[in-house]
Write a structure and sequence with these properties.
Helices cover 55% and strands 9% of the residues. It is of the alpha/beta class. Among the domains are: 69 residues, no CATH class; 92 residues, no CATH class. The strands form two sheets. Strands 1-3-2-5-4 form a five-stranded mixed β-sheet. Strands 6-7 form a two-stranded parallel sheet. The radius of gyration is 25 Å and the shape is elongated. The relative contact order is 0.09. This is BTB domain-containing protein.
């Protein structure tokens, strides 16, 4: 065997009948199990590619995959170790989930594809703005110890979602990426440049949406208000609080602005129930409009179109 390849010991089965090479890693697995999971591997195993000058290793046919070794490793682990990639809410590292998503789509392993997509949908796909604004118990690990938080993971999600027809993940992934400072967005690898510029432009649009939401604090009240002086004072405090929360260049969170704590703050500072109800109604309507426009801000199909695309993909139509 070529010493330039590193054997992955716990994915090197002595009774394995197929050798897989990816970059500089090599795996020995059971051909029949792969074939039972994937029509693509079934065909590939029947007609193995030549890997350099080798046609076989230890009597096993060799398949050379043009995928990253990291993706191939997590993909094979998910197939050969039933405890490795459990359904949500079991914890999973983001890049493992993305690698499995990519290769299970490419090699038509539908149960793994759906499982990977369900993991990613927990923090990234919501049927309504109300669902988005509810607290989410995110089971995905995004960084390892010592790693700096950057928008890289969201660009990786965007790339994988495009490759696998999982467009429903894109609006929130773009939205999250847009919340990073401009210098963090624009100093990444060149292949991210187009998406980075899109996020910077979208951030400016979202900042304007923040300004529109802020204006509501100066223009909305209730005709049933019985304490106009107190409500006016609370309104100015609320406006100051809101503007302070969005003063940075990357503080573009209009869809998430003003939750239960903030409405309680208005009550504590003397705003009457009638004015609070009026503000909540106007604010909810404004946030709903931002949510509905969110896909369009990133040049994506509408929410209803994305929901239909999700239905098709999760139904197994057109996979592979």
């Amino acid at each position: 065997m070529d010493e330039a390849y590193t054997r992955v010991e716990d994915l090197w089965f002595p009774d394995g009948t197929l050798i897989i090479k990816a970059e500089r890693k090599i795996f020995r697995v059971t051909k029949s199990i792969l074939a039972s999971r994937s029509s693509v591997f079934r065909d590939m195993a029947a007609f193995p590619q030549r890997a350099g000058d080798d046609e076989s290793i230890d009597g096993c046919p060799v398949v050379l995959l043009h995928d990253s070794a990291a993706d191939v490793e997590v993909f094979l682990r998910a197939i050969f170790d039933s405890s490795y990639f459990m359904p949500p809410p079991e914890p999973v590292y983001i890049y493992s989930a993305l690698g499995i998503l990519r290769l299970s789509h490419k090699y038509d392993v539908q149960y793994l594809f759906r499982r990977a997509l369900r993991h990613l949908e927990v923090p990234l796909y919501f049927s309504s703005v109300g669902a988005f604004r509810e607290p989410v118990s995110d089971h995905i690990t995004y960084t390892v110890e010592g790693e700096v938080d950057t928008p890289r993971r969201f660009f990786a999600i965007i790339k994988a979602a495009r490759e696998t027809c999982a467009e429903g993940l894109l609006p929130v992934a773009y939205y999250r990426a847009s919340q990073y400072p401009h210098d963090a967005l624009l100093t990444g690898p060149s292949e991210q440049a187009e998406d980075a510029i899109k996020c910077v432009k979208a951030g400016l649009i979202l900042a304007r949406e923040n300004a529109t939401l802020a204006k509501n604090f100066t223009s909305v009240g209730s005709i049933l208000c019985g304490t106009p002086t107190e409500c006016s004072s609370a309104r100015l405090l609320a406006l100051d609080m809101y503007l302070s929360s969005v003063e940075g260049e990357n503080d573009v969170f209009p869809v998430e602005s003003w939750g239960h704590a903030e409405w309680g703050y208005l009550k504590e500072h003397g705003m009457c129930p009638a004015c609070i109800r009026a503000y909540r109604t106007v604010h909810a309507t404004a946030v709903e409009k931002v949510w509905e426009r969110l896909p369009r801000i990133f040049d994506l199909p509408s929410w209803s179109e994305l929901a239909e695309m999700k239905r098709v993909v999760m139904g197994g139509i057109g996979l592979g």
